[in-house]
Design goal:
Shape: flat
Number of helices: 6
Number of domains: 1
Structural class: alpha/beta
CATH class: Alpha Beta
Largest sheet: 4 strands, parallel
CATH topology: Rossmann fold
Bound molecules: FE2/S2 (inorganic) cluster
Order of helices and strands: EHEHEHEHHH
Strand order of the largest sheet: 2-1-3-4
Low-confidence stretches: 163-181
Radius of gyration: 16 Å
Helix content: 40-55%
């Protein structure tokens, strides 16, 4: 584990991939409602969390992000039906992949934020900034193995991707995950 930085000029950078239909609208609501949330978080809008190519996350880290948030509609609410389930599996795998390259799993967080949850978004963004500040800057060395692994992951058949934690619509597990986000 790296030592947290005390360098006064360092400012954390977090890239957030937000689905268009729920999470982006939720973040927009936070802005409209004038809720304070971290300026360290930079949003990239994708149509669905299922659009998240794992290489997006790796690239974000390689290009200087200290943390990444992936946010989609709550389970069962994806506008493309199963995109957030795909995101869940991908993030689950990505955390393991990133850990192999020395990236703390807490630097990648998957959450569910609906269009009406501006407050939840503000809280998540602020929490992520605090997490990254605690961990310190990510100093990712160039590593071709990491890129190869990412490509191998992306080209693997879907059937080889192990399922993430079980959940079902309306189940208790979904509710608790939704409350705290899935990270
Ligand atoms: S449209 Fe929001 S997660 Fe798919």
């Amino acid at each position: 584990m790296r030592e947290p930085t005390t360098h006064p000029e360092w400012q954390p950078r977090v890239v957030a991939f937000l689905c268009n239909w729920c999470s982006y609208t939720g973040a927009d609501l936070a802005g409209i409602s004038r809720l304070p949330w971290s300026p360290a978080v930079h949003i990239v809008r994708v149509m669905c969390s299922g659009r998240l190519d794992p290489t997006f996350v790796v690239r974000a880290f390689r290009m200087g992000a200290d943390g990444v948030i992936v946010s989609g509609c709550h389970p069962g609410d994806c506008h493309y039906q199963k995109g957030n389930y795909k995101a869940l599996r991908r993030v689950h795998l990505l955390k393991r992949l990133l850990a192999d390259f020395g990236v703390e799993p807490e630097r990648l967080r998957l959450v569910w934020v609906s269009a009406s949850e501006g407050g939840a978004w503000a809280k998540i963004a602020n929490e992520m900034e605090a997490t990254v500040r605690r961990l310190g800057p990510l100093r990712l060395e160039p590593d071709p193995r990491r890129d190869e692994a990412c490509i191998a992951y992306e080209t693997a058949p879907e059937a080889e991707i192990p399922p993430g934690p079980p959940f079902s619509k309306g189940g208790a597990e979904v509710s608790s995950s939704a409350e705290r986000g899935v990270s």
